[in-house]
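Thread: Modeling a multi-component assembly for a lab meeting

Hi all, long-time lurker, first post. My supervisor asked me to bring a structural picture of a complex we are working on to next week's group meeting, and I have zero experience with this. I have the sequence lines for every component (557 residues in total). Could someone generate the structure of the whole assembly? Inputs are pasted exactly as I received them:
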Amino acid sequence: MKTGQKLSDTGIDQFVEHYDSYYSIVFSAVYSKVNNYHDAEDICQEVFLRFYFKREEIREPRKWIFGCLRIVVLDYYKSRSRSGVSAEELFDDIGMGYVNGFRDARILIHGALEEVFEGDEEGDAQLFELVAVYGYSFTEASRHLGLRYKQARYRYRRAAERLMEKLRERGINRIEDLL
Amino acid sequence: MTEKDNIEALLEKYELRHPVSRRDRARIYRSKKRTLPRILREGERPGLMLRVSTGFYYFFQNLRLPLTLAQARGASVFALAVLIVSAAAGGLLVGSRYYGGGVMTAVKTEAPRFRVLAAVGNVRLLHQGRETPALKSGDLFPQGDTLLSDGSGSALLALQDGSMMHLLPGSRLAFGGDAGLPSFDLREGGVLFRVAPLKERRGWEVHTPDALVRVSGTEFGVMITGGRTAVFVTRGSVLVTYRETGASLPVPEGRAADVTGEMKLRELKEREKALMKGFLDLLPAESPGKAGRGDPKELTDKMTSMLEGEKKSTAVKKRLTLEDLRARYGRLEEVYLYSGKRYTGVVLSNDGNKCRILTPGGAKTVPARDVKNVKIIK
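Re: Modeling a multi-component assembly
Sure thing. I ran the full set together rather than chain by chain. Output:
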């Protein structure tokens, strides 16, 4: 298929939309762990390449991407014979740990965050994750996600409100109580 | 603490926060832009078009103008086309500048035009078939126009590059060619030049009915006398071509040539020397670029005295006949005065106040109210 025809495909538009939403999060998640820019870039490319090939079958992109990320990271380290790298160590964080849980308050917070991220239909969660978890400024996050600055602030507030709701459902009425 | 600070503090405390440095955040964004075309090429090295398309996609995204990739591709095709056309046009201009074409010169160089530094007597411009009033200091002589001087008219003119020209009385000179190669068509009379060294120009040509004079930075004069062209050079050299035979003769410094079938070099005549000396005296020495800054009044006075000296010497040597006048002006007129007096010659000017008549005995000026009738003799 020629480039022009390929780019006109609506499936490609949808893929690019997901790519734009998740690339920075996935990269930040990998990079914060492996601490090697080039390794992180290779892993990210592999994840999104697999996503590209499967794009028409995937119903829940976030779950799929982070599941795939886990496999790719393990494969990557196996292929490079990096001994001593434990998958549990690598995935034991909010960015990648969808299936892992934590104890006590950490479990509560993690669960609340997961629900916020998974229940997100407006795309607020990616913005929230970049800002709150990976320390992006609103300006940077809005640039990465193709949003206006005001949109970024608004989306962050909505996601934060949802997080508070989820925490309240778990019996935590004020964040200060956990600090 | 704001809500944002609280949330960050909470995640920090439970080790759920993994800040990425500012530098790495910028690198991640670059990686994102770089990786997309590679993925769309299914892991292969992406082509130029795809890279440019994704570049445009992110460029417009940064401007908060969300485009689809297909739209970004359209924009990039358009931009590439504009770039190619601009580069081709630029290359053409630069190429023509260095390889002899005229495009760059025409764009870069202002159209050449002479400015009148001083004019004496009746010197007019023939512009689009119409004669202008007598020229004065500061008037322009652009390409395409013709300069006319009567028997008492003379003008000193300067080109933008500092080249100078002195139009002698009784001359008709058309200015043509292009910015790179000015050319002059001398139909009668004479003209003296000091041509500035070549920079933007490719040459300098003077055409006469029987000769072509090619120059490249020199001081010389061209005169038509009795239908024959004479070329005299006081500095540099010129190449004279006789039109009838195509024979060429280089005329070096300090020599002259009469354009005939023989085409021989000769010494400069006294008159030619005097003309060139008078012309060069009008110019500031060795500063052609500053020639235009001379005082017009001073120049006019110098030119007037030069013309008077020239008139005297010409009168001694040769008197104009009626046939000479007819040949030069294409007509002869009889002017009848109320007093019964009659002049035969050519009416040079009649401004309603004074009537100037050129006769074989010299130029006569009579009050216009004394003129009873003017009759053209065929």
